[in-house]
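Course assignment 3, question 2. Fill in each field.
Student: A.L.
Task: Predict the tertiary structure for the chain below.
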Amino acid sequence: MFKDEMRIFAGNANLPLADEICSYIGIPRSSAEVRRFSDGEIFVELGENVRGRDIYLIQPTCPPVNDHLMELVIMVDAMRRASARRITAVLPYYGYARQDRKVAPRVPITAKVVAEMLMVVGVRRVLTMDLHAGQIQGFFNIPVDNLYAAPVLLDYIGKTFQNHVVMVSPDAGGVERTRAFAKRLNADLAIVDKRRARANECEAMNVIGDVKGKIAVLLDDMVDTAGTLCSAAKVLMESGATEVHACCSHGVLSGPAIDRLEKSQIKSLVITNSIPLGERAKACGKIKILSVSPLLGEAIKRIHSEDSVSSLFV
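Answer field:
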């Protein structure tokens, strides 16, 4: 059934993850030429017939975000014009997700703009993971499956930190996520109160909860410039934590992130392979990568066979 009806394509954003997903499902990645003209324009040519096929296009919109987003929409247009039956955009990381609401006058809601682009060009289903804000699903008028990296992260945390663990949310917005982890691990919960001066800059203020004499595990959906995590780690150590570790679904790690991590009091940072790492990040001894290819691969299989996806997280 998979060989006859399903085709899995990938842009250039994360080819290793795409190949891992194809290996899990048991079919080869379909060929497509995605290159650039000398002026930077993107050219796409599909290498095989997709007429009447169920297409899954794997393309996280990670840095460089705009290039990968344009690759995605151009590939979808090529598939639609080649008479694909249904196109599912598999976005392990959804770029622009942090711009999900108006926080000031005269600013856009860019997460909505991206959703409109995908629908207009021909995407008929979206499979993503750990959206920055759940309400982004409502920006689409097509089915959206928002997976969670929780099973992968919970398994790692449970095996690595077995005693005297406190799960810590680095801000108020992540409390619900962190509480769910703490409940599953039978661990304590703490919150770092912070004040953000401007985008990508924050000042950690104090800790709500008891972390003294415990191993603190910070939990967030993404780490970008690492300012939030590093500031939180400093406050946690000052509040008596014996060690500070961090777990995040998406390792964006832009700008000064690696320098900050190496100088910080964070002993380890665990991330998934939803975003490929740069050379400096790969060389950083504090970073550990967990694969989410089985999770994404199983979700694709269930979508294709019209089975339940939500039962993956029961």
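Instructor remarks: The first strand starts at residue 6 and ends at 10. The chain is about 30% helix and 30% strand.
Grade: pending
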